[in-house]
Write a structure and sequence with these properties.
Layout: E1 4-8, E2 13-18, E3 37-38, H1 54-69, E4 75-79, H2 90-97, E5 104-106, H3 117-123, E6 131-135, E7 138-142, H4 159-173, H5 188-203, E8 207-212, H6 230-238, E9 243-248, E10 255-259, E11 262-266, H7 275-278, E12 280-284, E13 288-293, E14 305-308
The structure holds zinc ion (ZN).
Zinc ion (ZN) binds next to loops.
């Protein structure tokens, strides 16, 4: 049995997965593979912007798509910031992403809100800004880290915007590094949705992987990139034995931390890294996750990062 997921974080962030099979695994058999990469593409920018080689990202995405189509992936999920600089750029990057044959899922990132929410949801064929999907024995929760924000395209007068302004003002008064307009919060309503999902997964003895654009654990990223309500999210995750990993983008440098048996992985961004570095596959076994480049060209597999899973 072999479950394969592709996780991609672009500036654009792209994720996907294909061919997840039932979880009745023998020792050493992978249950799933995740790939993640992070690219950035903006035709509005003149080729490069500092380290961010936006225009190169579409080429990297093409390279990644071809590599992924040679694999038996359960799904592909992009981790947000698929587009930058205007909705017109989505017309350039999305067809390349859609060449990936595996089932595709999306996470919304802060840069994606160069477009209206309803436009994004429709164009990306998303059921909602936060949602779940599942495979036998596994549940996957996708979060909207701009649910409470000042830059998440919420209308004037909405609670999401008003609460965003309030939280940002509080964080600024406390001089926290993540008091940035380009960050956001999951918020209470979405936390309640997540808690219910996790309780149900606990009861069903399912395992959960959470996908998000923003990092939640301080050890997994630079501090100015953290979700505004990262502490509440970590506390919520740790209250549920089903949670095994939290996989995100946003911090282009990437990062990793582990706490209370939960792995927090920030995948490096394609916009500042090679396709080989930023396009990764996560293989999910019963006792571990293995993360490796999706673009390993030699016959010898590259060295995976092995993350042990608690029972
Ligand atoms: Zn971002």
């Amino acid at each position: 049995m072999h479950h394969v997921f592709l996780i991609a974080s672009l500036r654009c962030n792209i994720t996907g997965a294909s061919n997840i099979r039932p979880f009745g695994l023998g020792p050493g058999q992978p249950a799933a593979v995740f790939v993640r990469r992070h690219c950035g593409y903006s035709i509005c920018r003149s080729g490069t912007h500092g380290l961010r080689h936006y225009r190169e990202s579409i080429g990297k995405l093409q390279e990644c798509s071809a590599a992924l189509n040679a694999k038996n992936l359960a799904f592909v999920i992009q981790l947000g910031d698929l587009v930058d600089g205007g909705i017109d750029n989505l017309d350039r990057i999305l067809p390349v992403f859609d060449r990936i044959r595996a089932p595709k899922h999306h996470v919304l990132g802060n840069h994606d809100f160069c477009a209206e929410r309803n436009v994004l949801l429709k164009r990306l064929n998303m059921p909602a800004a936060y949602y779940q999907f599942s495979e036998p024995a596994w549940r996957f929760a996708v979060l909207d880290g701009m649910n409470i924000s000042v830059a998440g395209r919420w209308p004037e007068g909405s609670d999401n915007l008003q609460n965003g302004r309030s939280i940002l003002a509080d964080l600024k008064s406390e001089h926290t590094p993540n008091a940035q307009t380009w960050n956001g919060a999951v918020g209470e309503e979405q936390q309640q949705w997540l808690a219910k999902l996790l309780s149900d997964a606990d009861a069903r003895k399912q395992r959960v992987i959470v996908f998000a654009h923003f990092p939640a654990l301080a050890a997994s990223c630079r501090p100015n990139h953290l979700l505004w309500d990262h502490q509440q999210i970590v506390k919520l995750l740790e209250a549920h034995s089903s949670v095994k990993a939290f996989l995100n983008g946003h911090d282009h440098n990437g990062g990793y931390g582990q706490q209370a048996g939960i792995h927090y992985v920030t995948f490096p961004a394609m916009v500042e890294h090679s396709a080989a570095e930023s396009c990764n596959v996560v293989s999910v076994y019963q006792d571990r996750l293995e993360i490796r480049s999706a673009l390993e060209k030699s016959a010898r597999p590259n060295s995976p990062r092995v993350l042990k899973l608690a029972n």
